[in-house]
């Protein structure tokens, strides 16, 4: 359990690509339950521990997940997410290609529940939802490019779907067009940074999650930091 930040109201964790945030049909223990056990053990709490889920990450995605430790914080964080007052940025590894170094992608996404997949269109379709993101190239290696992505909307599989639509599928993402899987079964999409005003203390908070323990990720992270 890599805890990035903790106070009386909030706890942030760096999720691995094998973990799920909330319970699903697999029956695997979700991160929310693991966190309850961790808090209970760390603080020797006798009763039930409260951990509220404020947002989700796809299972194959790694990175920063924010949880609430009180019901008050949960209600306020949920409201802040709805109002887009919490800014999230992601890092993605994609194959090198002939694409602009920076851009805004606007599509209309249609979700297929049976396939658990979204499809991107350039024009509005029935039951579609508008999806907007901004990306910029941080660095380029021999085979892969590292993109930083700022979400303007929060749609199902939005980053995966929109990048794939532009011919930039994320490394390891078979569902959205990459040609082979990653050894760990995850995809090279990482929730890198979250910034917000603390719902109780009103202090400005910025949290950063280290990339997965993987040679390519580490090399690209170093290259990006050297370019700053």
Structural overview:
This protein has 228 residues and is an alpha+beta fold. The chain has four helices and eleven strands, in the order E-E-H-E-E-H-E-E-E-E-E-H-E-E-H. It has helices at 31-43, 71-82, 158-165, 215-227, and strands at residues 3-6, 10-15, 52-53, 62-68, 87-95, 102-112, 117-121, 129-140, 144-151, 189-197, 204-208. Strands 1, 2, 3, 4, 5, 6, 7, 8, 9, 10 and 11 form an eleven-stranded mixed β-sheet that branches. Strand 3 and strand 4 (62-68) form a beta hairpin. The longest helix is centred in the first third of the chain and has 13 residues, at 31-43. It is globular. The mean pLDDT is 95.
